[in-house]
Amino acid sequence: MANVKLAQKKRVGKNKEKIKRIYDRAQTPYQRVLACDQVNKEVKQKLREQYVTLNPAELRRQIKLKLEKLNNINKIIINKIIDLKPETKVTFLDHRTK
User: Fold this and answer.
1) DSSP label at 24?
2) Are residues 62 and 31 in the same domain?
3) 71 and which of 29, 46, 55, 92 could share a cystine (Cβ 3.0–4.6 Å)?
4) Global pTM?
5) What integer pLDDT is reported at residue 2 of this predicted model?
6) Residue 2 C-alpha from the chain's centroid
7) Are 79 and 97 in contact (CB under 8 A)?
8) Nearest Cα to 50, choosing from 37, 63, 69, 33?
């Protein structure tokens, strides 16, 4: 997600009572790393190669699947601890029965 960075602050007005903030253009952290002179070319190339392989939709699906697995494990553990009937539903963060 792109974000903006504060580039400058200037005092303006008759008595310099107001502060005018000047922001840099919006960039993602990835774009900022590539624009940075302190990062060497090999690291930037590795980041480019990795960036090409990323698929945000697939990453979201994988995260959702793993969260569902954790939720199921949590339900099993909670049900064993408080000895509930199998049909009683327990949500991930809510230990009360429904």
Assistant:
1) P
2) no
3) 92
4) 0.50
5) 72
6) 12
7) no
8) 33
